[in-house]
Amino acid sequence: MIPLLDFLSEGQVYEMLLVTQSNVTPVGVIRRGGTLFFKLFGGKSAEEIKRHPYASLQITNDAGLIVRLALNMPPKEGLTLVRRGEFRWVEGIPGFYGRVNWKLKDHEDELGRTRVLTCALDVLGIIEGSLVPRPFSRADCALIEMAVDFTRLKVAVNSNVNLAKRLCDRICENYNLYQRLGGSDPVGEKIMEKASELCLTKELQKV
Questions:
Q1: Within this chain, do residues 20 and 84 fall inside the same structural domain, yes or no?
Q2: CA distance 21 to 135
Q3: pLDDT above 70 covers what percent of the chain?
Q4: Interval 14-73: pLDDT, tens
Q5: Residue where a domain stops, chosen among 105, 127, 149
Q6: pTM of the model
Q7: Is residue 95 part of a domain?
Q8: Calpha distance 114→16 (Å, rounded)
């Protein structure tokens, strides 16, 4: 067993950075043994893995970075990317690299039906790096939940107005919590602004 994997409890979902040939995006990752599992609902990273099944998964405690990458916003500080053979990763951030085995599967939930790329990264090695000594913060948790709900909201407004209304309410609740807990990253306000625009559609006002 690769020692760094021991820090990931089996079965628990972790937000990690997936680095493919030309893209960096956050994904929810579950460890089982020496394999890391994640899903991609389309997008650039999914297409790159299908063409080139090698990737890196990296660990960060920077909620702002995770949220910005999830929403395709530039990070506060630029990321330095390095390439080693088939693999590419963000310099200075610890993690894992390996070959990705993938399958396309049908998926259905409240947002409707779609095809999802289910991925299993067999860890071949570790990426050296260190984390900024940033303590755990409930404000960071609220920010992450806002971003997750916002990505779902963008789909729900066109497919499930009742779900969209619940997501709008939850984003507002988490934004208020984020502020009460001292959260100050401007990305929180940006999510709230964009969510408010989506939540003001005539269809949602009727719910």
A1: yes
A2: 31
A3: 96
A4: 999 999 999 999 999 999 999 999 999 989 999 999 999 999 999 999 999 999 999 988
A5: 127
A6: 0.91
A7: yes
A8: 23
